[in-house]
Amino acid sequence: MHRLRTCAARLRPLTASQAAQTVGQQRPITVTSTGGKRTFQPIRCYTAPVASEPFLNGTSSNYVEEMYYAWLENPKSVHKSWDVFFRNANAGAPPGAAYQSPLGLSAASSLVAPQLSSLIRGHHVAQLDPLGIMDADLDSCVPTDIITSSDKLGFYGLEESDLEKVFRLPTTTFIGGSESVLPLKEIIRRLEMAYCQHIGVEFMFINDLDQCQWIRQKFETPGVMQFTLEEKRTFEEFLQKKWSAEKRFGLEGCESLIPALKTIIDKSSENGVENVIMGMPHRGRLNVLANVIRKELEQIFCQFDSKLEAADEVGSGDVKYHLGMYHRRINRVTDRNITLSLVANPSHLEAVDPVVQGKTKADQFYCGDTDGKRVMSILLHGDAAFAGQGIVYETFHLSDLPSYTTHGTVHVVVNNQIGFTTDPRMARSSPYPTDVARVVNAPIFHVNADDPEAVIYVCKVAAEWRATFHKDVVVDLVCYRRMGHNEMDEPMFTQPLMYKQIKKQKPVLQKYAEKLIAEGAVSRQEYEEEIAKYDKICEEAYARSKDEKILHIKHWLDSPWPGFFTLDGQPKSMSCPSTGLTEDNLNHIGQAASSVPVEDFTIHGGLSRILKGRAEMVKNRMVDWALGEYMAFGSLLKEGIHIRLSGQDVERGTFSHRHHVLHDQNVDKRTCIPMNHLSPDQAPYTVCNSSLSEYGVLGFELGFAMASPNALILWEAQFGDFQNTAQCIIDQFICAGQAKWVRQNGIVLLLPHGMEGMGPEHSSARPERFLQMCNDDPDVLPNITEDLAVRQLYDCNWIVILLPFRKPLIIFTPKSLLRHPEARSSFDEMLPGTHFQRLIPEVGVAAERPEAVKRLIFCTGKVYYELTKERKSRGLEDTVAISRIEQLSPFPFDQVKAETERFPNADLVWCQEEHKNQGYYDYVKPRIRTTTQKAKPVWYAGRDPAAAPATGNKNTHLIELRRFLDTAFHLDAFRDQQ
């Protein structure tokens, strides 16, 4: 088939007829193509193809090609069956579907296959829009090969009289049920009922025959969609009565989302799922919380009370349609326990997608669910965001990666057929908003959301697909938005014709109730009694909500950590224990870091030298950055703390320093992770190279870190500035997550940083951004007590240590310092009783006579080594002190104060290699001045302000370095700043 299409692509339009044109003629045929004139042997026109693809069943491919060229010249020069075969192939029929038996050979011959392949694409003509005014695929033209009327029969060489002929059904279709032969008219009718009504199915791009046949059976089998539907109630009408002027992003126009989600959850519970993690945007969120997760109605109503006071733990809080929820309950359909989580999500609509996937992966990991049978995810999307936001594509591409797969996600698109005010024809280039899902061969089920029975059936199939194949699936609920973008918006400004139609549209509950009443399934009295019963439930809950005086955020946690914050029922002590290790422990981990624990494993010669160098460092009781990281990870693993390190090329490390995964040089895909061979009862170490994604993967790891506080989850950027494209996750979830949702998280960001002449894209991790978002007050000197360091950590918005709470940690990791001979630490600094040093004070010659020191330079990071080298070359070691601030935020006020008081006669200088408008200066200057009660100015030594993070010219880089070093050590350099 592909060869035939290739032939077609090569040909150019032909000239005058040169081929045999009547049955039985046998003179040579000459055809002109881009390759010149070609002459073929005569072809007998009565020769017919064999059943299925001819050249796949013994027919010579050269013979087929000759036949094809002859057909291109004149279709009548070949047998009619070949004519139809080539028409179908050129029309794009999939492999195996182009052949059809010649009509009239028998009264019950094989089915004409093109009708199957074309009507399976009936989603192009299906009645998907409840309003009846839009084409879901944005194209009002009917594809020429889809039979929608008798005038299309000619495309397949058929006539209207052929509709009454009876054909034998092939095994590739299920429309016959128990029948093996059907008239062509009935065949077309059944296919239209399966694929061209209120459900449109996209699956023919899937390259797995078993999966395609599974889907066909679900939709083609007669009577498969007939069932009794339990009526579902909505929460929106009541909210409309009470808060008509509130933004609540109601579900009117897509009320069937609630039974859709309940069906997916019920069917998944039936298949063994115990835990469902969900993510969704604003629209319908309150409805989902109330009717799917079963959050207490009074707690939702509380959110609308403007007089409600926030409890101490709430922080800044967030709007009601951003909040998350966690609830464990009995599933009434299956009588099984099920845990439902709705992850908190900001207005960056699709940002929650990878977070949900990461949390799902973590829950699967910690309960030993290796194939996703017990834990699953459901993601809800809006049509405009699903098509428009790149994070959707990034998340899909994680779906089958070994270290990131959650074994299938059910995606539900609430297809409003509009964005805020933007028409879909202006918002996407693809026919459907769901086309992005085709990149992972996910089947896509489009369904008219005003047909509850079709919605329920599609959702059952979606849940069964996920349980059967453990792959993603998409349900596209084609609906409308009755109220505009929110309840205070006027949609008639921009979509007048659509909203004129919407005003005439009966709500789906009313339409379906009338249908059931007409069918005799329920009486009008029963229907009205059910509505009144639910109204009463809401009224009672609303009355109870008035008794709530304080909003407690504990009701809105999406990932509670039971038992973590308390010990024997009491809050854990606010202390920071020593993180030092015994000498034996350091040696044991060091030996593992410098050896290969697997026999007959051949490593690269260069790696042998690296491991030998590590062993030498261990022998000398020294560690560099890579070995220090190994010591930290290894000690935590031995204590039973799981570690997951993820990011681009993290297994080896961007700078070829880590080498946590060893590769056998002689056996493909044979690897070894020495850190998983430390001790028999250790926790597992997961180190995984990610896809080339920052936004998606950081979100994934953030979600993973949500699941448990007793794990170390790290994401490393290839270069520090690569976090630029993950800024949404950093701003919305990591920085503000605790303030908005009291959502603690211990995610660690490793961001390589350093000004080394590598240009603006590979130099700066943009520390100024992170420091600007820190929540400590630069003008307030905290009460300096023994527990200040811990108290500051508790109050800040990001950092993490072994403490009874979890905060995100941002580490600006080194590049050149990975191999700098002076950037090493002794075992003595890592033994029991030692702690992390927030500030490393001056300990050299200057510390011996502190009153003689004329200048105290504060700095952080790599510039310290350049400053010490320059100080020594200038002979200023006794008059210039250099102190390193290792923890920038929370700012170590107490230790900076002690250092400034130790050198009472010294000028204060902040030196950095970053530009003045970047880096740390604007953050540290007011805090140092607050520490000294503004008794002294804080002078600046560093690069001048600039728009780009770094120069791309090596010579310019060195000139800038020389200038700021001169400034740092020239005693009169700051007079011009005054």
TrEMBL record:
The keyword Oxidoreductase applies. It is found in: Mitochondrion; Nucleus. Its EC number is 1.2.4.2. Residues 623-820 form the Transketolase-like pyrimidine-binding domain. One of its GO terms (biological process) is glycolytic process. It catalyses: N(6)-[(R)-lipoyl]-L-lysyl-[protein] + 2-oxoglutarate + H(+) = N(6)-[(R)-S(8)-succinyldihydrolipoyl]-L-lysyl-[protein] + CO2. One of its GO terms (molecular function) is metal ion binding. Its cofactor is thiamine diphosphate; Mg(2+). It comes from the Eukaryota. GO terms for cellular component: mitochondrion; nucleus; oxoglutarate dehydrogenase complex. Keywords: Calcium, Glycolysis, Isopeptide bond, Magnesium, Metal-binding, Mitochondrion, Nucleus, Oxidoreductase, Thiamine pyrophosphate, Transit peptide, Ubl conjugation. InterPro entries: 2-oxogl_dehyd_N, 2oxoglutarate_DH_E1, DH_E1, KGD_C_sf, ODO-1/KGD_C, THDP-binding, Transketolase-like_Pyr-bd. SMART domains: Transket_pyr (SM00861). Belongs to the alpha-ketoglutarate dehydrogenase family. PANTHER family: 2-OXOGLUTARATE DEHYDROGENASE, 2-OXOGLUTARATE DEHYDROGENASE COMPLEX COMPONENT E1. This is 2-oxoglutarate dehydrogenase complex component E1. It comes from Astatotilapia calliptera (Eastern happy).
